[in-house]
Amino acid sequence: MKTIYKYTMDLIRNKSENDIWELKIPQMSKIIKIKMLKPNVITFWVQIEKDWLTSPYQKVKIKVAGTGHDIPENDYIYFYIDSVFDPQRTLVWHVYHAQPKQGPG
To answer: Do the bridges between strand 20-26 and strand 2-10 make them parallel or antiparallel, or are there none, so unpaired?
Structure first.
Protein backbone atom coordinates (compact mmCIF):
# COMPACT_ATOMS: atom_id res chain seq x y z
CA MET A 1 0.00 0.00 0.00
CA LYS A 2 1.33 3.43 -0.93
CA THR A 3 1.49 6.27 1.56
CA ILE A 4 3.11 9.69 1.80
CA TYR A 5 5.50 10.72 4.54
CA LYS A 6 6.93 14.14 5.32
CA TYR A 7 10.67 14.76 5.83
CA THR A 8 12.42 18.04 6.58
CA MET A 9 15.90 19.37 5.89
CA ASP A 10 17.15 22.35 7.93
CA LEU A 11 19.57 24.37 5.81
CA ILE A 12 21.07 26.25 8.77
CA ARG A 13 21.23 23.61 11.52
CA ASN A 14 22.67 20.98 9.19
CA LYS A 15 25.48 22.86 7.49
CA SER A 16 26.58 21.38 4.20
CA GLU A 17 29.68 21.25 2.10
CA ASN A 18 29.21 22.81 -1.37
CA ASP A 19 25.49 23.41 -0.66
CA ILE A 20 24.82 19.66 -0.78
CA TRP A 21 22.76 18.11 2.02
CA GLU A 22 21.77 14.52 2.75
CA LEU A 23 18.15 13.46 3.13
CA LYS A 24 17.61 10.05 4.73
CA ILE A 25 14.56 8.30 3.20
CA PRO A 26 13.54 4.66 2.59
CA GLN A 27 15.02 2.97 -0.47
CA MET A 28 12.82 2.94 -3.56
CA SER A 29 10.84 5.98 -2.35
CA LYS A 30 9.95 8.92 -4.58
CA ILE A 31 10.07 12.64 -3.74
CA ILE A 32 6.76 13.99 -5.04
CA LYS A 33 6.61 17.56 -3.68
CA ILE A 34 8.77 20.06 -1.83
CA LYS A 35 7.97 23.37 -0.13
CA MET A 36 9.61 25.79 2.25
CA LEU A 37 7.01 26.25 5.00
CA LYS A 38 9.45 27.89 7.44
CA PRO A 39 12.56 29.94 6.66
CA ASN A 40 15.60 27.76 5.96
CA VAL A 41 13.69 24.46 6.29
CA ILE A 42 12.77 22.53 3.16
CA THR A 43 9.92 20.04 3.54
CA PHE A 44 9.80 16.97 1.30
CA TRP A 45 6.74 14.81 0.75
CA VAL A 46 7.87 11.32 -0.20
CA GLN A 47 5.72 8.53 -1.60
CA ILE A 48 6.61 5.10 -0.27
CA GLU A 49 5.20 1.63 -0.06
CA LYS A 50 4.37 0.85 3.59
CA ASP A 51 6.45 -2.34 3.29
CA TRP A 52 9.50 -0.17 2.54
CA LEU A 53 9.47 1.36 6.03
CA THR A 54 11.34 -1.68 7.28
CA SER A 55 13.81 -1.66 4.37
CA PRO A 56 17.21 0.03 4.63
CA TYR A 57 17.26 3.79 4.32
CA GLN A 58 19.27 5.63 1.70
CA LYS A 59 20.99 8.99 1.97
CA VAL A 60 19.87 11.09 -0.99
CA LYS A 61 22.17 13.99 -1.80
CA ILE A 62 20.28 17.23 -2.35
CA LYS A 63 21.75 20.37 -3.97
CA VAL A 64 20.16 23.73 -3.16
CA ALA A 65 21.01 26.78 -5.27
CA GLY A 66 19.61 30.28 -5.28
CA THR A 67 18.42 32.01 -8.43
CA GLY A 68 21.48 33.21 -10.34
CA HIS A 69 23.89 31.02 -8.36
CA ASP A 70 26.31 28.75 -10.18
CA ILE A 71 25.67 25.01 -10.23
CA PRO A 72 29.10 23.52 -10.92
CA GLU A 73 29.01 19.96 -12.24
CA ASN A 74 32.43 18.86 -11.06
CA ASP A 75 31.77 15.81 -8.84
CA TYR A 76 27.99 15.51 -9.31
CA ILE A 77 25.30 15.37 -11.97
CA TYR A 78 22.18 17.32 -10.94
CA PHE A 79 18.55 16.42 -11.64
CA TYR A 80 16.01 19.17 -11.02
CA ILE A 81 13.27 18.37 -8.49
CA ASP A 82 11.45 21.66 -7.83
CA SER A 83 11.82 25.28 -6.71
CA VAL A 84 10.75 26.63 -3.34
CA PHE A 85 9.95 30.15 -2.19
CA ASP A 86 11.25 31.41 1.15
CA PRO A 87 8.14 32.49 3.12
CA GLN A 88 9.82 35.48 4.81
CA ARG A 89 12.14 36.78 2.11
CA THR A 90 12.01 37.26 -1.62
CA LEU A 91 14.36 34.35 -2.28
CA VAL A 92 13.72 31.34 -4.47
CA TRP A 93 15.73 28.16 -3.96
CA HIS A 94 16.12 25.53 -6.68
CA VAL A 95 16.43 21.96 -5.44
CA TYR A 96 18.24 19.16 -7.27
CA HIS A 97 18.98 15.50 -6.69
CA ALA A 98 22.79 15.28 -6.76
CA GLN A 99 24.23 12.02 -8.06
CA PRO A 100 27.97 11.46 -7.82
CA LYS A 101 29.68 11.10 -11.19
CA GLN A 102 31.04 7.65 -11.86
CA GLY A 103 34.75 7.50 -12.52
CA PRO A 104 36.18 5.63 -15.51
CA GLY A 105 35.69 1.87 -15.36
So the answer is: unpaired
